[in-house]
């Protein structure tokens, strides 16, 4: 598999929206439903990542965007070392092929290079999304809490969210954090 990871640009909006919509349409994809992936939502997440965060796309041969990850720095100085509001979406045709892991590794590298450096990355995952939870734990995230009944499905049932965090090891070029 030939795969490239590169920073997201505003020109990627349509491709990112397509990946998010396809991912939202499958169980365990992302929290938003396909109809919630609007142009305004995509413009907001790309703009926030470009302004003070990390936004990356995974691109397959032929330039097709097959995955996207973004997170933003918390805009309060006390928490400015934290990337939060993280979302990763991998097109269903590409799941289970290392795309998500590659996106996370690139996000970690980009976070370490930010100034001031990012020390912590945090995310939430649905308690019923065992595959995502396994991936995040394999990447080094630790469970830090449970938010009871945080999500509600269209049928009215609830799901807890699992709060997870990762402390980035210091970059060898940047000294100790």
Automatic annotation (TrEMBL):
<keyword id="KW-0808">Transferase</keyword>
<dbReference type="InterPro" id="IPR000182">
    <property type="entry name" value="GNAT_dom"/>
</dbReference>
<feature type="domain" description="N-acetyltransferase">
    <location>
        <begin position="3"/>
        <end position="169"/>
    </location>
</feature>
<protein>
    <submittedName>
        <fullName>GNAT family N-acetyltransferase</fullName>
    </submittedName>
</protein>
<dbReference type="InterPro" id="IPR050832">
    <property type="entry name" value="Bact_Acetyltransf"/>
</dbReference>
<dbReference type="Pfam" id="PF00583">
    <property type="entry name" value="Acetyltransf_1"/>
</dbReference>
<dbReference type="InterPro" id="IPR016181">
    <property type="entry name" value="Acyl_CoA_acyltransferase"/>
</dbReference>
<dbReference type="GO" id="GO:0016747">
    <property type="term" value="F:acyltransferase activity, transferring groups other than amino-acyl groups"/>
</dbReference>
<keyword id="KW-0012">Acyltransferase</keyword>
